[in-house]
Amino acid sequence: MNEQPPLISIRGVTKRFGATVTALDEVSLDIPAGEFFALLGPSGCGKTTLLRILAGFENPTAGDVLIDGEPMIGVSPNRRPVNMVFQNYAVFPHMSVAQNVAYGLKVTRVARGEIAERVAEALTLVQLDGLEARKPDQLSGGQVQRVALARALVKRPKVLLLDEPLSALDAKLREQMQLELVRLQKTVGITFVIVTHDQSEALSMADRVAVMDQGIIRQIAPPAELYEQPNCRFVADFIGKVNLFSGQVCGVEGDRVLVEIAGLDPVPVPAAGEAKGEVSVAIRPEKIRLSASAEGSAPVGLSGKVREVAYYGDVSKIFLDNATGLTIAASFQNASRAVRPSVAVGDELWISWDPTDSLLLTE
Question: Which pLDDT score is estimated for 1?
Fold first, then answer.
């Protein structure tokens, strides 16, 4: 059985601004129909430029973009099967909710009866029924965002592009809208491409995530794979929190390599292939175990003194210093209902982890 061709195909896309700035450097990726895809990376990595090229607001210096098999270079934004939700939503303040949503249909001269039907359908989809007559200044931030979504969806695009759509919302509403966007995408079945710099946002919403850095894609993978199996130091460090130790390969032990890290006995780390020379070993803070002594601890261990404790309610994050100069971050759930944290600054603890929880990074 033949696989379906991708809905979006980006081939060798490069974008230069002037002679010195390369925003995108030969980027290639495919996005199938119906996927929630995230472009993730720090400011200036090229993710918004790539989204604007998809939308038709920028032209690449080189490369090609195809949507549903059709070349898009040179096709104006209004003739592409895409719609975009901007960071500031760009709703018209003098128009009602219904008028905002209907605007694009009126411009393209859709029949009046069909406009009313499609507007009602879109407002139901984003749960704004009954608010048709309100103006944007009579709505909450989350409701304004829903108006922008309804206005984009009412045109029934093949692809919905979202440029940091939740950045203007407060933390609680932002989390709620993340779930709303996922529900909405699964309901309508349209391909969503979202740009964000927020790792938790990308991990919680997307089917796959492309991590970008300085105009190139470092890794494309489902969220759990990105977090548990980053392919390089940059991705490991950018996605979530991580302890990264520099070391030197000093031997092999079955399917593991032995890595010499200052302050530790040689650490056995699972390795998929051959590794030698300088490497990095990564271990996530939540996989670190803390105990009063070395007795009964995991195989890899060292002692440390608690330098800092950060309490976040459901979890606490702590930083420990070892006498050899290593600093290790650990986190744990505050499972018991106690007013005082179970760990305090100055505590001497044994820090350990299972070798299978660590990851070898060669670049």
Answer: 43
